Amino acid sequence: MPARGRIAFVAPRFAEGDTVGGAEILLRRQAERLAAGGRPVDFLATCARSHVTWANELPAGRRRAGNLDVELFPVDRDRDADAFRRALRAIGRGRWRAEHEQTWLRHGPRSEALCRRLAERASEYERVVVGPCPFALTVRAADVVPDRTVLVPCLHDEPFARLAAVRGMFARVRAVMFNTPAERDLAARLYGGGAPRRFVVGIGMAPFPVDPDAFRARHGLAAPYLIYSGRREPGKGTPLLLTYLAVFRARTGRDIGLVLTGAGPVDAPPDLARHVLDAGVLGEADKHAAMAGALAFCHPSRRESLGIVLLEAWLAGTPALVNGRGAVLREQCRRSRGGLWFRGYAEFEEALLTLADNPALRAALAEAGRRFVLRECAWERVEAALLSALAA
Amino acid sequence: MLCAVMTEKAGFRIGAEGVDVDAVAAQVEAAVAEKARRGAYDDPRLARARRADLLDLDSSEDLAAWYLDSLAEAARVDINDFEIHERRARFGRLLVAFKRLIWKMLRFYTYRLWSQQNQVNELLLAALETLERRSREKTADLEARLARLEGGAPPPCPPADE
To answer: Is residue B36 domain-resident?
Structure first.
């Protein structure tokens, strides 16, 4: 086996343009870092851009994206999307039977062409990095050469993590790369603390220049605002944030708005709608400017394995307010001293009032968060952990 | 490096290491508990937030615990936990005294209804808590049995070429 052999990265989607997804971004950045270090890297993904429709929107075939050789494959057409959605709903609600799991595997977004190509070229790959966890494609790709597969699970505490197929995948792969210690602890709780080799790797982040007043001035935002960046959907907690903020405004009379960046519908309550700015998918510089001008970055999701946008917000100089029912984000805030958390509306109201009334507290949280990211997410540290995991 | 300062209102200590967020979280929790004692959350507008909580926790293992906690909080009704107010400035004190008198006159009847309602609430809550506990124990037993039967090995998943 070559000492610095070829690496294949496999993900359901390739992060590019408005195809946003934390796990996909994480895998792409890790692949790019390895490629920049001279490692030959192939990135295999499907032609889908939407994680809802899984329609083949991008052309299949090989191309160059930055320093990566990317090959896209069509999502199988013979899948029963309705049966898949029914299974998804049953599993998502925590009430599923074995046949739901089989349907999820059989009719979930997968690509036989991708798995076939991976199997054909398996002998060329020193390691195959697959992720994230709750996709049929990941489960199948991990089975092609499990003894050379490194899993990037991006594990959430959700019913999908309890599927027998996911549990089996954890047991079979060569190594697992987690994003945070909290995610590693969750895996230990779910699957036991034994094999395979487990590493906390995460993502490297570099500081960026930012003007806190630019976004506010461009959009004429006079009132302080919370910001959330990412997909807008129930799984990410955005309906919860919209409802909480509407109730907060009604109860406290405080004029605090909300800026949302990212993709997906925004269904704001009528009494909040005119205080919400849906900025859509922004470029990195605009997104960071929007974060920098905010009172706090609010991440309402319970199910995160890292929260890249939270790290970006800290780098932009903004404190965090996160859903404390999710262990990962709460622990990130605790470890970094960069944010507060809430477990229910009453704590949300109190924490937001505390942040709004204490600029010195906000500045101290933001500074601690920034230092945490610069320390924990320095590319040198992340790359060393990544190489260790691949060499294991 | 940050110097140690106290913020203007809440008295948070900010040192070289930043803020002790656990201490701030504890202050937030204490403030919430105090406000709850004062009835600050007995507010119909919070029903929206509770519905959002319910939807957010729908698939979570925390749901039953959260729901039972909320139910326990709501079930033990205390009808003495409010102050009698009067918004009108004119004859305000007189009106408050009048309302207190009405309250005292109706108390014998209201207390009886309140007591019966609390009994029903407590019985229902106890029944639900018992059912939830039994169900949790049964699930844990079944999971342990399953793990023993599988001999600790994870179940196989379909082969890649299926």
So the answer is: no
In this prediction, residue B140 has a pLDDT band, given cuts at 50, 70 and 90, of confident
Contacts of B29 in chain A (CB under 8 A): 347
Residues of chain B with Cβ-Cβ distance to A140 below 8 Å are: 160
Residue of B nearest to A92 (CA): B59
Interchain pair A144, B22: CB under 8 A: no
Of the ranges A65-69, A257-261, B112-116, the best mean pLDDT one? A257-261
For residue B5, name the pLDDT band (cuts at 50, 70, 90): very low
Joined together, the tokens standing for residue B45 give 């507008």
Question: DSSP readout, A140-186?
Answer: HHHTTSGGGEEE-----SSGGGG-HHHHHHHHHSSEEEESSHHHHHH
Mutation target vs B (from A76, A321, A335, A365; most B CBs, 10 A cutoff): A365
User: Do residues A345 and B46 lie in contact, with contact meaning Cβ atoms separated by under 8 Å?
Assistant: yes
Q: How far apart are CA A247 and CA A250, in angstroms?
A: 5
A364–B46 CB contact, under 8 Å: no
Q: What's the DSSP call for residue A123?
A: G
Residue among A92, A139, A344 whose CB faces B53 most closely: A344
Residue B62 has a pLDDT of 64
Q: Chain B contacts of A102, Cβ < 8 Å?
A: 158
pTM exceeding 0.80: no
Q: What is the CATH architecture assignment of A214-376?
A: 3-Layer(aba) Sandwich (3.40)
Q: Where are the domains of chain A?
A: 6-203+378-391, 214-376
Give the pLDDT confidence score for residue B26 in this predicted structure.
Answer: 95
Q: Do A360 and B14 touch (CB under 8 A)?
A: yes
